[in-house]
Structures are given as C-alpha cells and as structure tokens.
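Q: How would the structure tokens look for this protein?
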Amino acid sequence: MKYISTRGACPEQNFEQVLLTGLAPDGGLYVPKELPHFSLAQISSWKDLSYSELALKIITPFIGDEIPAPALRTIIEESYAEFDHPDVAPLTKLGDNEWMLELYHGPTLAFKDFALQVLGRLLDYVLKEKDQRVVILGATSGDTGSAALEGCRHSERVDIFILHPHNRVSDVQRKQMTTVLGDNVFNLAVEGNFDDCQRIVKAAFADQSFLPDDRQLVAVNSINWARILMQIVYYFYAALRLGGPEQAVSFSVPTGNFGDIYAGYLAKRIGLPIKQLVVATNTNDILHRFISANDYSATDLIHTYSPSMDILVSSNFERYLFDLFDRDAEALCAFMNRFGTQSLKVSEPQWQQVRACFDSASVDDETTCKTIAEVYSRLGLLLDPHTAVGVKAAQLCNSDKSVPMITLSTAHPAKFGAAITAAGIETPELPDHLQDLFEREEHYTVVANDLAEVTAFVKSHIHKKQLA
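A: Here is the predicted structure in token form.
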C-alpha cells in the first residue's frame, strides 16, 4: 500500500513512513493511493469475529507486510484488552430502528481510545525496529490529549507535548490530561482556541528546524492516517451486528474535525453498505453549512456544551475534498488557499455529489440539553452532549426508518458535567479507575498563542538521552 499527499508535492510513502510523519511536508494529508475493496461475501464471513479479529481483517491491506502478522495481531489484541466491555463497542437501542454505538469503554472514556491505544503500540514497535526516538506534538479540543497521553506515555522512545485551549475544555478533560505522570509528558495550555492550537501544530510540522537533527515530529491528531484507519473498524462492527452487509445501515456522527465521519465515508467506499452518513455539528456549523448550502466560510467560534466539536477548520475535510476534486492536488490547493479570505463554494455538480454522500444538521446547546433530558426521561440512559447532538441530528435527517440508524456515542457523560447539569440531571460519577481524578495533582504550563513560544518550550524539554 502506497500513500500520497493531498497537496501533490511529496513522493509516495509506505505505511511506516506515514505513521511517523503525520502531516505531509507539503502541508497536505496522506491518503491511500488506491483503496482496497471488500466484497459482500467477505464482509458477511466476518459476522462472528471478535472486535480485535475484525480489526485485523480490515487494517491488514492498508499495512501490508510492513508489520508482520503476528506482531500486528498482538498490537491489536493488547490495545482492546484494556476496554471495560467484552464487546469493546456495544450497541444500545434508543428506539424503533434507532441505535447508539458506545465508543467510550476505553481507558479515557472517549472514542479516541480506539485509535490511540493502537497508535501508541504501533509507534513502540516501529521505533524499536528503527532504533529511533521521536517527538509527538498534538492539539486537542478535549479528548485526543488524554487518549494520546494514555496510549503513548509508557514509550521509552517518545517525548509527547499536547496543546489544549486554556479554559476551553471540560474540567474532567483537563484533569485527564494534566494528571498523567511521566517525565516524557508535557501539557501546554494555549491562550486561544482549538483552531489556534491546531494552527501552531501544523506550522511546527511545516518547519521542524527547532528540533535536534536526530528527532522528528509525529502527529497524534487525526491528521495521522493511522488514526483514521482504526476508526473505520467500528463502522463494520456495528453494521455486522445489525444484519449487515445484507442489511444496509445509516450512521449519525458528531464531528468537528471530520475525522470520524471521514472514516465512515471510507468504510462505505471499501464495501460496507451504508445508506446515510449524517454529519452532526453543534453551533460551530461550517460542515453543516457546506453540506446543506454550499457555504464553506469561516465564522467566529462559539463556546458550547460540546467543546470537542468547537472547531472551525476541519483538518480532515481536506481528505474528502481531495476526492471531490477528482484528486486534482492543484485545484485543491487553490481552494484551500482561499479559505478564510472569502466565502467558498464548489461547483453545482460537485455540491450535488456532496449532497448525495452526506446529510447534515446543526444542533444548538438548548436542543442538546433537551435531547439529553428526553432520552434520560424515556430510557434512563444518559447521553454526553456530543452524543446528544448526534441523536438529534439522526432524528432530523433520517430519510428511511426501515434502515437501522446508528449514532456514534463518542464520550462518557461524566466527562461533561456542565451539560448534564444544564439538562436538569445530576452529574454521573466517574468510573472506578477515575474516582480520585480531582484529587490528583495537575501539571501543565500556560503559554501564549505563539508558535515561537511553543517550539522553544518543546526544544528545551526534549530528552537528550540516546537509546542504545
């Protein structure tokens, strides 16, 4: 399997190279040069597989023989052994042909664990084989940070720096990051929003001259292809448990950075029968405006009860646009370079192509809280605010109620107490392994919204010790 950049100015790469690069040197994102395709007969034969066994079937064509099958199997099995539910991603019924896929049974209670538990172990394997040490630099709107730290903090060959927007994540999200112990772990609270954090990370990847010669940056955000790859799996897992592939299914996906919904788009392209892909956004609705009105223009960021979706620049959307522009890197670059300077739209045929692929809805805070309260009253089931956005969007967009509609539940409700309280419900307790979270000592540094300050901090805190 070879990978190419969406910006078209980089040579082809293999999986290990893409894993250790993240953002392409030309500023683009890596995508497979060609996609594999699974037949309905193949997919049907996977119905009785465990989550780990299914993951191995799906990801192997994207990795090839770069990681030997026994080693890859061990990586996958160890990653999901730490989840607290035997099904790893269980389904819960919400109503008539309405379902919720619970993606919060990993160690940090968010869907990011599905990819980052694997990513940390992949890095351990590859870096040991290469006798190499790297620097992870990532930005988080809340959940990626703790999942990345949990997945990578044990690595002897990684220094990890996570940027989060100061005072713009939930208390639980912040504590989950800033209480992680490790002399290779650094949390930076940037005086800005998530888009500012993401901008700094992308700029640092573009110019890595601040690093020692023997180091390079590795991405843990969903700009890293391995993140997207591991998220494809649970679309297949859910579909197979609801009658797929003979029965088509639909998905509603709470999304801000377009990574999770892009994984669903790929699942459909490689063979999974999906009827609808619903893009569920909060008031920060650039994706909904583009899908519903062909308006891809920046607006002011609004702080909401679903902070992990408080994003204006959806990085992974570029991967989809690359396909929309028929993989014409020059046309894509011209489009992306105009973003932020004017209201952007695509051609009418292109927009109709978008409309054929996605449905969308925007859900404000008031409706989010009402949805939390309604589901709790009806089922005794507590939704986190991001999941509530997905559930409401599913209700608004469902075009065929004979097809199972599955909302991805992206986080445990205990992580977002403010939204639960606003819905008139008592905040749930954290799981046992996090009961003492608010008693743990925090470690983080507040920094200016400034690339030079961040890179100077990274440079001064990189471990100089070499590994034999």
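The two ends are 31 Å apart (CA to CA).

The chain has a mean pLDDT of 93.

Upvote if useful.
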